Structures are given as structure tokens and as C-alpha cells.
Amino acid sequence: MTFDIANKTILVTGANRGIGKTLVTSLIEQGAAKVYAAVRNLDSATALVETYGDKIVPIQINLGDVDSITAAAQIASDVQMVVNNAGAFQGTTPLAEDAIASLQLEMDINVYGLIRMAQAFAPTLKANGGGAFVQLNSVVSIKTFANFATYSASKAASYAMTQALRELLSEQGTRVLSIHPGPIATDMSSAAGLGDIAESPTIVADGIIAALKTGEFHVFPDTMAQQIGGAYQSFATNVVEVTMTEE
């Protein structure tokens, strides 16, 4: 299945900064009709509205608050594509005193938040012709980095859920993409100490838009991601992307 963003209505979580803000800009500039800029604080989307006018509709979503997600799904009843970009990063090792607390927060936002988004918006996407659901995972969903192992664990879990969503939502004609960036120039990369090797968020947006056109499931947009993705590709193609019977 492929998906063309031209004249489509799209929702992006975490739209006020980093990859999310860049993606909103790219979607509008490449032909999307309207983008719901999903943020926790509506005022944080003001700059996008000032630039793009009524093509941007700020909408409140907190991935840790199921009521906000349910309410947003009712408001954005015309949405044809959802990009779940927002996430939480604590950067904790398994031996740190706060490891369990960090993992609990990251699981709540990065995994349970994904589940909440899928449950709320899958019926809307189905009603609007299938569309697409895009999940921002990470290369750390495949390769754990010890200094932020709890984040890696949460992204590994969100990747597992994304694989399940690919199979389940295909039945209603919804394309699912799993995006696996490496270090991207965002606040999160700076917090992880990866600012010196981080690449532009634009390459993530470009990778998503290209994959929607070609029908790919995995997207490895940057240099580090492509290195890891290249080694992983055979497993991805021959195991992850193959439907197996549970016998």
C-alpha cells in the first residue's frame, strides 16, 4: 500500500519542536491540506499558525492522558494520517537508582501512549479510507545503548507494538510505518550527549514522505540509522515483514 500526502488531513504529535515541527512544515510545503499540530500546550503551536494560517489546527494531546487523546480523536474526525512522534526520554542505565521510575515514565509515554493513539485513531482512519499511521521509533529499538537503556527498552517495546499494528491495521487498509532515526538535532539528542553527531530533522521528514510513496515499512533516515538498518535489513525483510502462522 502507498499513500500520497497531497490534499490530505494529517495529525502530528509533538508538533511544536524537533522532528515533529519539521515534519509539520514538510507536510504542508509538500501538499498536505491541513495538519493538526498535536501538543500538550496549545500556545506552543502559535508560531506554526502564524506561518501557515488555517492549514495548521492546534490540538491538545498528552500521550500520558487517555482522555486528551480520546477528545482529540473526536475533534480530528477528518484525519487521514497520524504521525505519533511525541515521546519521553530519561537517559538512564539499569543500575541507576531511578532506573525503574525512568522506565515507568518512558513506557507510559512511548509504549502505552502509542497504544492509546492507535486505539483512538484506528477507527477514524478506517472511516476515512484507511490512510496511514506512522510511528517514530528509534535505532535504539534494535540496538540498546547502555547509558540510556531504559529509553532503549521502551522503544524496543514500541517497535514490537508497531509490528503488530502493521498486521492488524492492514486489514482496514491502513499503512503503518516504523521510523528508526539515529542522532537527530533535537533537544533529546542534546540531552543524550549526541549533539555533535546529530543530523538535520529534515532527513527524517523526507524519509517518511518517500516511504509513504514506495510502500516501505521500515525507515532508516540518517547515517547511523542506515548503518544499523543495513545490517538489520535481511532479518527485517525475511522475519519481521513476513506474516507467520502461530502454530
TrEMBL record:
InterPro entries for this protein: KR_dom, NAD(P)-bd_dom_sf, Sc_DH/Rdtase_CS, SDR_fam
MF GO annotations = oxidoreductase activity
Q: Look up the domain of life of the source.
A: Bacteria
Question: Which keywords fit this entry according to its UniProt record?
Answer: Oxidoreductase
Q: Which residues form the Ketoreductase domain?
A: 8-187
Family matches, as Pfam families: adh_short
Query: Which PANTHER family does the record match to this protein?
Result: NADPH-DEPENDENT 1-ACYLDIHYDROXYACETONE PHOSPHATE REDUCTASE
* Protein name according to UniProt: Oxidoreductase, short chain dehydrogenase/reductase family protein
Source organism: Acaryochloris marina (strain MBIC 11017)
Q: What is the lineage of its organism?
A: Bacteria, Bacillati, Cyanobacteriota, Cyanophyceae, Acaryochloridales
